[in-house]
Every structure is written in structure tokens, then in C-alpha cells.
Amino acid sequence: MLLLDYLESLSIPINILKVKYQQKQNYIYFDSLTIKNLEIFQSSYDQDKKHSLFAVLDHTVTWMWSRLLKKWLLHPLSDEQQINQRLEGFSYFYDKDNQKIVSLLKEIYDIERLSYLIQFKQNSPFHWLKIKITLNAIYEISQIDDKFIKLSDEL
Q1: For residue 149, what are the contacts with CB-CB under 8 A and spacing of at least 6?
Q2: What letter would DSSP give residue 109?
Q3: pTM summary value
């Protein structure tokens, strides 16, 4: 309380005085300046996205995994156990020849976007066909290797 009174006496703008307590979370929070300085989504040299950290790391084959990678870069984990669990998921694709799974992943459409279109009745038979193809690919992946499905749930 004393600190707030002191800040008010300095005529500091009111939005700075809004102090919030955040509970400890399992990820690190970056403010916009940190994101800019770390060049996570855009290079500060030429203002181009292709030279950002995200562009260098994004070799995902689906839009959903690409969005997840963005989320992970924006909020990196702070818990060692969760970091190791995530690394185990990544090593799954490097330690084992999973070309069949990767080709099936390419058949998976953006479920998040499709569900949005269907929910708001902006759909067509083509969207339902995409859902069918996606569900078939997920089923085929689960038949190839149960470990992949379990890793996806954990990630």
C-alpha cells in the first residue's frame, strides 16, 4: 500500500498503478518488448518474418502444429519435467523412421478452423469431406503406432 501511495505522489499514469498478482504458472511470460528483441516472430533487422526464430523452427506439416509451435515459443515451459516430456515427443520423429505417419499428418486438415466453420454454419459438403479425410488419417495413424497418439495428447 505504501508503494502505491508513493507512486501516486509521483504523478505516474494510473495504468502503471494497476498491480496484479499472478500465480506461478508452468510457463514463462514474455512481454511484447521481449518478443520483439528476441525476434521470435519478426526480424528486427529487416522486419521480415522469414528471418525470425519461428520461421527457422517451423517445419511442421499441419497448421494446427504450427499454431501450437507459435504458442510454445510465446510461452516457453519452465517446468523441467514438462520440457523433457516435450523433448521426448520431438525425438520420436528423429529416432524412428516415421515417413508413413508424416504423410498421413499431411492429410489432416485444420480441425480447429473446420469446427469453427461448421459451428457457425459457414460450411459446405467440401468441409465435411475434409473432416472425413482427417478422421480417417487419425485412425490410420493410431493403427500404425499408439505411442504417437499418446505423445500428441501429452504435448
Answers
A1: 141, 142
A2: -
A3: 0.68
